[in-house]
Design goal:
The chain has 123 residues and is of the alpha/beta class. Helices cover 44% and strands 23% of the residues. The protein has a single domain, classed as Rossmann fold (3-Layer(aba) Sandwich), CATH 3.40.50.2300. Helix 2 runs parallel beside helix 3. The chain binds magnesium ion. Magnesium ion (MG) binds next to loops.
Length: 123
């Protein structure tokens, strides 16, 4: 199972990487924005989980999600959001997000949340 982290904050990517590694996911790609994410997804068919930040330059998380869903309905996409953006989660779920994680993370909660995708994701 390979995970793709899409976030314009390097610090946030580092935090997510460490959580994923705790969950046994060591195959991780990172990109800065939604456009880069779409490019990677086009080329790398091994990615089985996307962790998608909301606020990013070039292409926002929700735009990215909508693009992903035009071609791929199955890929698990988890939105990464702050408490103040929580009401927008409804919009994201409607657009096809599987789940969301709230910043700042409690690593145990995140692991619990991601477990089902990691287990079902296979390779
Ligand atoms: Mg951001």
């Amino acid at each position: 199972m390979k995970a793709l982290i899409v976030d314009d904050s390097q610090i946030m990517r580092r935090i997510i990487v460490s959580v994923l590694k705790k969950a046994g996911v060591n195959d991780i790609s990172e990109v800065n924005n939604g456009q880069e994410a779409l490019d990677v997804l086009k080329q790398d068919k091994d990615i089985g989980l996307v962790l998608l930040d909301w606020n990013m330059p070039v292409m926002t998380g929700i735009e990215t999600l909508k693009h992903i869903r035009t071609t791929n309905k199955q890929l698990p996409v988890v939105m990464v959001t702050t408490e103040s953006e929580k009401e927008r989660v409804v919009e994201a779920i409607k657009a096809g997000a599987n789940d969301y994680m709230l910043k700042p993370f409690n690593p145990d909660d995140v692991l619990e949340k991601l477990r089902k995708y990691l287990e079902s994701g296979g390779k």
